[in-house]
Specification:
By secondary structure, the chain is an alpha/beta fold. Helix content is about 50%, strand content about 15%. The protein has a five-stranded parallel beta sheet with strand order 2-1-3-4-5, with helices on both faces. The longest helix is centred in the N-terminal third of the chain and has 16 residues.
Amino acid sequence: MTNQYSNALLIIDDHPVYREALGEILTREFSNLGIGVYTASNASEGLDLVDAMDKTWVVLLDVKMPGLSGLAGIKVFKQKSNVEHVVSISGLESPTWEPRAVAAGATLFVSKNNTSISIYNKLKKLFEVSSMPSVVQTAEEQPDFRLTQRQLEVLHLISLGHPNKIIADYLEIKEQTVKIHINQIFKELRVFNRTQAVLKAQKYQLLSN
């Protein structure tokens, strides 16, 4: 694979058929965006690639592999200064693993039951966010999240674990309106799922007591 790209995706999976098939498809799709795609059969190989190449990485890490994997693997890759995002991928059930993976530092949890194009679309969003200009903040600075009162109410109900239908019934609005509010919350907080939204809201004390 070419070495010319400054942004790169690293797929780490010990199943050669899945790894090579996904790698081939994602290489074709991401090459059009100027993003290189690399593969490794284990975390050790992946770490060698990250250390050897001067690139900004998004790492797609299989949850269950021999050696370093799972939550420990997420934390190791997140410690690398040139790793922008770690995405946890697995055939295991997402309700069980997603909160744990996100808490360990993963940006996303992706199920292997998704199609390759669906996985591509999820990963593509990470590169789009990474390319946005960043604002350096001091420890004392509070990000200016522009959430409406209604969006804060929705966010609070999300933090309590309520599904969209219950939120809609509680706020006496349509379920589709709830979805619109949630999409705006994700966009404003620059997150990709409900778990991340709640964690970020807790960090910046956006939730009412």
